[in-house]
Predict the structure of LacI family DNA-binding transcriptional regulator.
Amino acid sequence: MGLGRSEGDGPVVKEDGMVTSRDVARLAGVSQATVSRVMSSAANIAPETRLKVQAAMETLGYVPHAGAQAMKTRRARIIGVVVKDITNPFYPEVLDELTRELDRAGYRVVLWNAGGGSHQDALTAIRERAVDGVIFTTATGETVELQVALEKKSPIVLINRVVEGFDADQVASDNVAGGALVADYLCDHGRTQVAFIGGLPDASTSRDRGRGFLDRMQELGYPVPEELRFQADFSHDRAQHVTGKLLDRADRPRAIFCANDYMAFGAIDALRRRGLSAPGDCWVIGYDDVDMASWPSFDLTTVRQPSREMARSGARMLLDRLVTPDLPPRHQQFPCKLIVRGSTG
Amino acid sequence: MGLGRSEGDGPVVKEDGMVTSRDVARLAGVSQATVSRVMSSAANIAPETRLKVQAAMETLGYVPHAGAQAMKTRRARIIGVVVKDITNPFYPEVLDELTRELDRAGYRVVLWNAGGGSHQDALTAIRERAVDGVIFTTATGETVELQVALEKKSPIVLINRVVEGFDADQVASDNVAGGALVADYLCDHGRTQVAFIGGLPDASTSRDRGRGFLDRMQELGYPVPEELRFQADFSHDRAQHVTGKLLDRADRPRAIFCANDYMAFGAIDALRRRGLSAPGDCWVIGYDDVDMASWPSFDLTTVRQPSREMARSGARMLLDRLVTPDLPPRHQQFPCKLIVRGSTG
DNA sequence: ATGCTTTTTGTATACGTATACAAAATCGTT
DNA sequence: AACGATTTTGTATACGTATACAAAAAGCAT
């Protein structure tokens, strides 16, 4: 074993600015392998060697190359998160929680927002080993691609929206029960002529909330007629527009249930635009209980789903799966709760 | 050159699932280098070879390994974006635009949200070559670290918040002028006893908007007394709280200017909580003109800054810099415009 | 056909790190 | 002091891709 520097005496810093473990080795007078071992700290290293190496890393400002590490370790330490409309305040809350949880676990987060190709690109990113796994918050009809990905054992978790019969980890709230809660509440208060504004027809959230609500209304003897059911793509503006048309009808409904809060805000805005208000002229109920729902400006009655908890749980499922790929898929469902506020009653 | 397969005849798919360019080469009966050339399409390739290779890629489902590519090309094709509070609706709008623009350019986006270490970790990510550059939307006092990073020629762009004397690309709106606009408007309408709610004292946006506003009020002969100036950390809740205290005073101010819309919503909420309203009991003015500001529920008078355009511009600056690292730093400033709505006048 | 230029392809290597294996150093025991 | 066990370190190589260089093939004019 050499007595002096094992790694020769080249320039310590190249014009490129990149400092490699070899540079550190050279300065510390050890082999590159030893530097690597100091980094992964676990190994057997003589205390003085460790100090020498750490000093060299310090002076050179060594930072390992993420790509090289990813190649060797087969882990990128990056998680992808797919979202469809980050402008809907529900998603920032979920993202807030996801970034915190993943950050805590030492992962970075790649964000896909909107863009038709988001879901597909996220799956590609897994195959490129650019990300270790992906959390989908807005899965819908792309079941085929997802299925293919699953068969390749891609670590995937669905949160919020869920795909039936899809054998991956999934986290959702009990949307059917949540929808039913709303029906019960409205009927209890004698509001039986009501409208429903759904989101996207192929989103499980919208479907289940609608089903739970509409089925229960029917059970209770007050079926919601077709002409009082709408789809507004989870968009504030479309919900506002739809509600506007509803309000212009001769037989104005006495309550509107929206499949999420964001659309409920649109409904309230439609009322306000006409000089009307909730609950005076029409009750409005949302779903999610985003922070804004509790603001005095909206004071929205809504079904609370534990969004942040769901996010955390989804993140942890994914992290678990990265450690133990053969874990049986888990489907987790959180209970919901009706939060009564000023937009009703 | 060899007649048969140049890459031997190992297994075509390993248990790992990873398909490498070597596997493709083997199947297509060419060398790994040729596969690589087909990928980078630019090179000289015989049409039939290209087809053979493409077919092989297709059947094997080849996707290049991001880490390996990053290592060779010294480009990760990832851009970092740092945000402080994604829950503030201003940032989702900026993010929406950034993700679109960067996606279009073939870049993925790593998001840092909150967390004291965000800024620092983003800089580390550059040195790890995990990202090619970073867009900071919430730069404040970490000037030293930024300066160090800059000296290492790290591609950095600041948008929204800006750091004086910092020689990197920066995109902002003319916040001083914007603040002055508000002062002019209020005085024009005889509202001279006014309060100011700032964000964070070390955020350029808050500082400049405050300065523009307060200086102009003074110039016009209506200095805003110290006890009507507040800091509410750009938070809805704190602004609501501060406004509450303002409203409880004997000499209630006749208008409140908030350094961003999010806080203005808090101010409006404070009014509503007390059964008061804008503009009846107190005018409220915000800054940013986020989508929500135009919702009937808020109908907020505000200073519009072209947030989305700023985001796009910042993204392009960064992309330019990646191509031409020695570009002289550009400071871009967008003009602002007062948007008068129902919360005043 | 011959010799030339141009296109196409293969060989070899580098990027920066992690790790299996072997060599060296250290330690403890007798 | 000598030997074996243990700790520490170095050597060599692999991860998957891109590319400089050289070799082969193809094209073209004579």
